[in-house]
Design a protein that fits this description.
Blueprint (H helix, E strand, L loop, with lengths): L9 E6 L14 H16 L3 E8 L4 E7 L19 E2 L4 H14 L9 H7 L12 H4 L4 H5 L21 H7 L8 H9 L17 H17 L6 H10 L24 E4 L2 E4 L9 H4 L2 E2 L1 H13 L7 H7 L8 E3 L2 E5 L4 E4 L6 E9 L2 E8 L10 E7 L1 E2 L15 H18 L4 E4 L2 E4 L3 E3 L3 E3 L2 E4 L5 E3 L6 E3 L3 E4 L4 E6 L2 E4 L4 E5 L4 E6 L4 E4 L2 E5 L4 E4 L7 E4 L4 E3 L1 E4 L5 E4 L2 E3 L2 E3 L4 E4 L2 E8 L2 E4 L9 E8 L4 E7 L4 E2 L1 E4 L3 E2 L2 E2 L5 E3 L4 E6 L6 E8 L3 E2 L4 E3 L13 E6 L3 E7 L2 H30 L6 E13 L8 E16 L3 E16 L5 E17 L2 E19 L4 E24 L2 E16 L2 E2 L9 E2 L2 E16 L6 E17 L2 E5 L2 E5 L6 E13 L5 E11 ...
Parallel strand pairs: 5-14, 16-19, 17-22, 18-23, 19-24, 22-25, 23-26, 24-27, 25-28, 26-29, 27-30, 28-31, 29-32, 30-33, 31-34, 32-35, 33-36, 34-37, 35-37, 36-38, 37-39, 38-40, 39-42, 39-45, 40-46, 42-47, 45-48, 46-49
Antiparallel strand pairs: 1-3, 2-3, 2-13, 4-7, 5-6, 8-9, 9-10, 10-11, 11-12, 12-13, 15-16, 20-21, 40-41, 43-44, 47-51, 50-51, 52-53, 52-67, 53-54, 54-55, 55-56, 56-57, 57-58, 58-61, 59-60, 60-63, 61-62, 62-65, 63-64, 65-66, 66-67
Helix pairs in contact: 1-13, 2-8, 2-9
Amino acid sequence: MHKLTLALSTFCFCLLVPTYATSQSITSSLSDLLDITQESTVGNYGFYGSTAAIQFGDGTRWSGATGVTGPATASKGGRALTVDDRFHIGSQTKTFTGTVVLKYVDSGIVSLDDTLQDWFVSQPTVTSALSVMPQSLRETITVRNLLSMRTGLAEYLGGPDPNNPGQTVLDVWNAKNGNYDLTREQLLAASLALPATMVPGDESTFKYSNANFMLAGIIAEAASCEAGNCRDIGTLITDEVIVPLNLDNTLYPTGTEWGTQQHTNGTWNYYGVLSDFTETTPSVPNSAGAMISNVQDQLDWLVELTTNAKGTLDPDTFAERLQNTQKINGAVGKVEGGYGLGIYGQYSTETGAYMLGHGGELSGYQTLMFYFPGDPTTSLDDLFIVADLNTFLNFSGERTFLPSDINNIYYELQKTVALYRLYVANPDGCVTTEAGTTCTATTLSDKTLAVGNSLTIQPSGKSWVAADGSLDSPVPTYVFYGNNGTAVTATDATITVEEDGMLEGYGNGMTLLKLGGTANSVLIAGELSAIGANAVALDASAASNDTILVTPTGNVTGNILATRGSDTLWVEGEVLGDVILGTDATLTGSGVVKGMASGAGIFAPGTPGAANASSMTVSRFEPTGGTLEIQVFGSSRDANRLLVKEQTSEDNPVVDTGIATLNNSTLRLTGTPLTGDIQVPILTATNGLTGTFTTVSDTTGLLTMDRGRLRSDLFYTDNKVFLTSTSPAVFDAVAAGTYSGSLIVLDQAQEQLQAMAGNRPSAPFGFARAIGSHASYDGQDYVAGFDLSTGGWAAGMGGPMGSNGYFALTIAQTDTAAEIRDGGATQDINALSAGISFGFGFRGLDVSAAAFFGEGDIDYRRETGSGTTKGSTDQQLWNAIIGAGQTLAHDSDWQTSWRSSLAYSHVTEDGFSETTSPGVAMDFDKRSYNRLRLGLGVKSERKLQALALSPWVSADLLYHADLNSSDIRYTGPGNEGNLSSRSADGLEVQFGAGAKYTTRSGAIWSAGIIASDGDLATTARMNISLISKF
């Protein structure tokens, strides 16, 4: 229960509960079981307290109260609740308002087909609030539409508050703890400010809205005036319903009064923030939700409301009231139902049973009253149940995982009655032999079942089925009732809960299954469910070495303790509760733990023995003194992982979930190392990590194993722990791409000089050249290879220099896309260079030189498996080439020459920071690289002739030398390292062919292709150029 709740105090009134013949397996009466059910559900869900009452088909009753009135700081001091305590009953008020209107229908004063306009005209004073509604809408909406929730009027609580712009009526009501007044005109205006929810009168659906019954109250008041005795709705309800039925503990308040001191407090526990709603005024809930009652009066009213046993309504009117209650075509809250006239029907989400009545909510209170019709041939198995709670939206300020459906306390009472009836009809559902105990039908027990060999819980053979198909679930097989008791003890036994088999227990401080002895084997393919404050579903805290498997169809509700012994808890299904491990215990599997996983044991997410990675989900992770064991699957570049996810209830986050605390814990890595550029999140916590692993156990060397130039690390972000393999592939590609682009620029300058040497310019000229290249680089040292695609251009001017020389000024641009293989991303390198080149003849030799300076922009991208990391930086490029060559022979039209060259490239690259989401963003330091290329080749070409092609062929041998390439230094969150650069040493053989064409004007067109292969790459290059005199 909630931290502020006092010890449970229970007052049970066991008034002639019908008796059934029972076997010796259970000694408790149905009344005892209902007491325990109420106590355990209140304890389980953390409510302050509850009152409840049941009337059976023979008229006998049970009633009970458990818990306290509210916090000790509230006006009632947190005293123990009693069944006499009054509650605000919220929307149950609608049943009273609707009944008053229907009584006027009986008397002929009101017709269900009357429109609002009819009453606005006939009783303008009392219906003056309707003046804010358009006449066309008043003429459309009927009394029947109001009582059946079929007007389309929106919920006024969600409309704009007239006194507080930007806030809704509900916002202000809650902020003022319910002590806030608005007129009916203001409430109706708030409703009309919102879009209509449906077409008025559409019988195919309904839309629940308090506005309907606020207006129904106006119609009732108008009808009283029409009858000659004007009364307000509170007086009408008192005169027409409360007094005739002797409902002495029921009232329609005029202010904050309760009519007695015997009442509860109302507490809204909004995720740990408490608000007291004890002193609320009736104007906002109005005739849709203002009333007060207690469970005894509510039960009297429920019987009359659903059976008309005392003739409150004419039989025909009563029949019409129920007409739509079995047409499930809308929803009340989150549960589908069918709305009649101030009453609705729905199917229990727990048992599927049809139920007729009404619920009620008011901030601080939850109330339910429903009739469960039994066999239509007899009333003996009819059931009328009422339950009130004094806590609304209750969620503990501490870490507590609660279901969103707080109606469960009500449903569990009806379920216990249904289970009891099944059990007394067949009390021999469990059979014990020398081989063990087997349960095949619903069995109830209040005594511990001791198992020394085997216990098999099979399906009960019964199902909870709703007639509308919304529910079809198995009925529990074995159900235990008992506060602070133990349902089953197993000593060196085999426990099997088969699929659709269910072992359940109710009781505060109850243990459902307790293991002892030397070793036990537990297989849960069905369901274990422990309901109650501090209830334990499975206690393996003894020194026995137990194996517990929750299969994919298995479900455990309640805490699991494995604090001693070498226990293995393998979860492939779902656990709704905490798991606490001792030093030698292990939690493994790929299931879900909707609770906290904590303790000094081993947490090994992922399915044991699986060939591929998988994950386990928990709501909170606190492995104090424990170990997170992660298996790595290097070949698939993945790893098992633990997901610590935030839990939600009613679409709101549950406090303190999605958090992992790693202080004083160990990370153990097993498996095979990751390869490539990959970031694998081995631990993810939605709402953040606290601390880091104190120790990392890496006995297989996953972080230190020699894998060439790959580096493995652990990185911690705000909400993830990553195991990474960082590859220098992208940096290899950028360096190679930059070097390749620089050589393209230098080679085009050299080719330009060679052209001038063969055809020395006599006047200034201009030139332009288009360049394209593709190169393929193999992987190296476990690092992926890559492909370079380069496009570019060069343009400039040149001319003679002295009597035997020539020069050229050039601007060149290259754009290189470097695509990493094996799923890597593409890097973009854009460089712009400017340079000067010159040449001259000397004793038969042609000597040339060129120098360029440029700047480049780089867009880095890395595909890491967790996402794409991005970064950008700048380069500075210094490139130069010198060459010498000579024409060897002139054979008619052809000439052959040799050539040599020495090219140099120096690049500095600025540091940069990556961005990524998700994943690990790293910072990379500044780096530089220096490379040299030596070349020797021959070329044979036809002499240039006007209007004729001059083909050429060439062959070159090149050697590349990596003079000095700095490592790539990186820094990430909580770690840093170095990546070695790719070697750029190697030979290259190059072959080329092309042709030149001289136009009539003397301009020279040239095109060629060069292909090469060698130690570094396989390359193909094409270019087209034009030289023209000015």
